[in-house]
Structures are given as structure tokens and as C-alpha cells.
């Protein structure tokens, strides 16, 4: 069936719950329905693919347009243990893919901090995980994508159509709807991670431990307490590890080494007063968390869901930030610009902008994709509840520092970057625009993010 269900008018928002916009929502069930989108968009309004809505800002919103939501197009089509490849429809979540692949001893090549993202969203944002320093971002592991756009549908790969392929990877949905993709998976013996944990008293110690030790680990991340000050500024807990082998498991776990039963905790309450998470409660949480972490512990065997996706245990945890929502701020600065990283943490800490733990990571090589976020350097990601009028000016000034140092902010998490900084942060923007223009000459594809930052370069 290629006819679409009638579109509903819906209010839509990102994971940060702000901003909110109204669109017509269509639930795609097939690639043919995606193709039909372009004829109906021509007749009415612009269109955009939407996955699971886990981007924080306005990347998956399109006020007044058609949002083609992919959750009905979510089948795993083939999984081949011998060639370690998976083909799936773009609406399949990484959760579904992991559950299908683990029994065959396969795992996704890159996972973000939640399994609740779609394959299409993972490609469109060229997502990164804790293994970026050794294995790069998601796009590097994509073998091919089937893309439906205003100029037609085609299956492309880095050899047949490098320009469109790499413009789609990290292209934030603006080259068309990814309908299916094939990705290279990795082999694992168990569903457990062998984790080393280490406490660092401050940022310098954390950075030096990471610089010295990261190469020995496939996965590495540091959780930073952004409210600690003075000599404790940037104190951190490093967690690093790799997939455990069968002989590292307990006798009991060895009976079913690939078992995967992530715990699903209670949902966060639907209504939370906006002051609940204030700097005092967050500071107390951060303090308790730091004290609880072992000073140094080697080789703890941990279920992979606890290591990779700790927040997936609390459904709708984004509600905890209350009705005003929150924003996530993630940036990267090149190696050599450590002073900018330090100054940013200092200023966030001084302003007492309550954030649960921030995540610090070292990125490895950049992707060939012109709009991809990661570049060799330090990346910091933090959630900030929207509560204070002083926050905007502070972040504006951090943006300036980061851009001047040759760094950039992550579009999948953005809701506020000043448009003038975009081309400075993404120097290959024009190259991406040229490829996009060929894929969408009439400007049928758009998003609120694209309008706000003039990504497509229309204005
Ligand atoms: C708790 C949490 C932790 C996170 N951790 C990380 C992390 O560690 N690393 C990281 O990189 N990101 C992380 N993210 C961000 C997340 O991985 C990205 O925003 C991802 O794009 C979300 O996928 P989605 O399916 O929800 O896409 P959506 O949010 O629905 O859409 C995101 C973008 O993808 C496009 N898109 C979606 N589906 C398609 C499709 N089929 N075809 C073409 N374009 C499409 C949309 O148009 C939009 O531009 C995290 C998010 C959360 C909520």
C-alpha cells in the first residue's frame, strides 16, 4: 500500500522538551510511502524524517510542515553472523537491533548513551559513542543506505556516490528519508563489559589519565562533577573497558553469556515542580556519587546496559527537569585547546548552573562527512535546566571561545547556537550545501534547526 494515512496535526518537541512546534505527522510504513511524501510535499509543504525524537533541540521538528515519523518502518531485514552485517529499516531502534543481534554474538559498532534512537537518526546525526577514540562515529560503519528524496530513491554507498552518502551521514535528515541501511556489526562473546573505574581529583588529573591510558581501552569516558570548585574543579570518575570474554564471566553467567535483560525502572513522574532539581540537590547528588565510586577498581564485569545506557532504566527521565525543560550543551575543542575546556568548566561551575554529571571524552579521527560533529579533541556534554536568565549570555560567550579555538557544538543537541557561528564551526558547510542542493533542488526538505541556523544557505 503506498497511500499514506491522513496526517494528524501534532505538537512536537525534542528530548529537551523545548522548543515546541506544530506539524502534520505521518507514520511511514514503507519506502514507497516515503517516496509519496515528495509528491504530497510538492503540493503542500516541506517535509522531514523523524526518528525517536531523542535529539534534544529542534533537529527533528518542522513547524507547519510534514514530519514523516519512522517507528512503523522498523524491521530488522537480515543479520549475517558470517559477514557481521545487518540490514534494517531506518525506524528500527538500536534497542531492537541489539536484542536481535546479541544472540548471534554481534553488537552495534557504536552506541550512544541510550538505545532508544533509530537507525536513521544514528546515521543522520553521525552519532558517536565511548569508542570514538578508536573506532570513529556511526557513519564509518555504514555500508549502504537507501535514501528516498525529491529526486528519487537510490541505494548508495561510499564508493558509488560518496558525495551524497557523506552528505547524508551527519546531514540531519536534510538530504532525504533514509529508508533502510546496512551496517557492519562487531563480534562479541558476551553481553558484559569488563570495566576499570578510577577517580580523578580534578580536571588535570582526569585529562592526564585519559591521555595516558585511553589507547588501551575500546571504551572510555569520564563523568565530571561540574559543581566542584577550587582544587576539586573538574573532579571525575573514569570508566573504561571492553567487551568481556566468556572465561571472564562467573560460572552462572557463563551458562548464558549473551543474555540481555536490561532493567526497566519506574517512569519519572509526569509533573515535577521546576525547582526540584536545583543546585543544592544536584550538588548533593554529585557529591554522593563521587564518594561512592571506588578510588580504583579493575576488571568489574558489568552488564552492557548499565555501562552504556544507565539512563534507559528510568523511563521519561527528561521530565525530571520540570515544565521549563532543559538544554543539553555539547561541544568539542581540538587537542591543544585544553585551556578553553578548563575555562568553560570553571565558568559553568562558578555560575552554579546545576547539571548532573557532565561527560568528558576524547575523540579520535574525524569522519569524511562534512557536517559530522566529532573531530580530534576533547568533548564535553552536559544537561542544564532552563531556569536562569544568566545562562543564555554565558553560553553565548562559551560558544565564542569554543569557535575561536577551532571547536564546534553538536547539532543533534543544539537549540540555541547563533547562526553566524555555524560556518566558522563547520568549515566544510559549503561542500555539504552543494551536495544537499543536488539532492533537494526545490528545497522540499527542511527542519526547524535548518531554518534557525540557515543550514541550507537559502538566506
Ligand atoms: C539520553 C541520551 C543520550 C544520548 N547520547 C548520545 C551520545 O552518546 N552520542 C551521540 O552522538 N548522541 C547522543 N544522543 C543524541 C542522539 O543519539 C541523536 O540525537 C540521534 O539522532 C537520535 O536519534 P532519533 O532516532 O531519536 O532521531 P530524531 O531525534 O528523531 O532525529 C534526529 C535527526 O535525524 C533525522 N532523522 C531521523 N530519522 C531519519 C531518517 N530515517 N532519515 C533521515 N533522517 C532522519 C531527523 O530529521 C533529525 O534531523 C543522546 C540522546 C539522548 C536522549
- Uncertain residue segments: none
How many beta-strand runs? Answer: 19
Count of individual helical segments: 14
What is the molecular shape? Answer: globular
CATH class annotation of the domain at 192-416: Alpha Beta
Bound molecules: flavin-adenine dinucleotide
Give the quaternary arrangement of the chains. single chain
What does the model show?
By secondary structure, the protein is of the alpha+beta class. The chain has a domain at 192-416: Alpha-Beta Plaits (2-Layer Sandwich), CATH 3.30.70.2520. Helix content is 26%, strand content 25%. It contains 14 helices and 19 strands. The protein has helices at 31-43, 94-101, 119-124, 132-135, 162-168, 203-213, 251-254, 279-292, 304-308, 338-350, 391-404, 422-425, 429-439, 448-453, and strands spanning 8-13, 20-27, 47-50, 66-69, 76-80, 85-89, 106-107, 142-149, 152-156, 177-184, 186-187, 192-200, 219-224, 236-243, 296-303, 326-334, 358-363, 377-385, 408-409. An 8-stranded antiparallel sheet has the order 15-12-14-13-17-18-16-19. Helix 5 crosses helix 13 and helix 10 runs antiparallel to helix 11 (391-404). Flavin-adenine dinucleotide binds next to strand 3, helix 3 and strand 10.
